[in-house]
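Quarterly update from the structural biology core.
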Amino acid sequence: MQDCALDKGLLDEIMDVARVMSADGKPADYIPELALTPPELFALSCAPAGGETVETGDTERFFTMQSISKTLALAFAVEHFGAANVFRHVGMEPSADSFNSLMRIEMTSSKPSNPFMNAGAIAACSLIHTAYRESSAERLFGFFTEITGRDDGFDEKVCASEKRSADRNRALAYFMKSVGLLHGDVESILDFYFKLCSIRCTSGGLAQLGAMFASGGVSPVSGRRLIKRETAHIVVGLMSTCGLYNGSGEFAVRVGLPGKSGVSGGILAVVPGRMGIGVFSPALDAKGNSLAGMKALELLSDRLNLRGF
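Predicted structure, tokenized:
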């Protein structure tokens, strides 16, 4: 296959095809504030390493990172506490369970399968919160700002909505506490976790985050090294196997790139050594992944011959 050129014309074509998929899904409704998002929104951004971002659609529209922020938490934890310490608290294995499942922990009382499941992310947040307490959220916000060069804060309405509808996550956290898998005050750790999920971003911000991982830890904005190359490899490796939960296998076949989704409709994808990609479309499939976002990344991967890059 001959590679196409990455330009706005190509992204416009992909948008026109992909956004039709939104009709088959709907925004997440178990977080009431997310259910208010117009399902027809769509944005696609590509940030080549060392190049200008190319994008199309509703690229000025803010949304919350949700589970995509788990890549930030993992990178931050590995950088500050070391990989060996982090993976004493959480595993690095794929799971066929849904993202908010507590079944496997309840059956085995073992550590969470990976840091992208809700239980695993809460365990990583516990590790960070134990060290930094009330400043934990500000440190993660600052980390994202270093990557993108802009401070967009977090969405207080979405955060409050998550807290009000968080029975499942509270069940996960308190169960983990009861079997010795979580340390510290559960409600404080969950407050940090909800703020992390509520970080505001755009598709361009996601693309810059992807570009940082694609370059092995170098900020696409400042050119400064923000994380070690080994840390970036850990995050990207887990994105390849666990980034779309029980939809990770389908994503690997259809798109063939490391990815991480969030239930607000965002998907982060990484082309190692080449670029980061951010896509946003809030209508989700049954597994909590953006329908139009998945289709857009599949088309982009095909047109630019990215699969297995």
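The chain has two domains: 8-64+201-303, 67-197.
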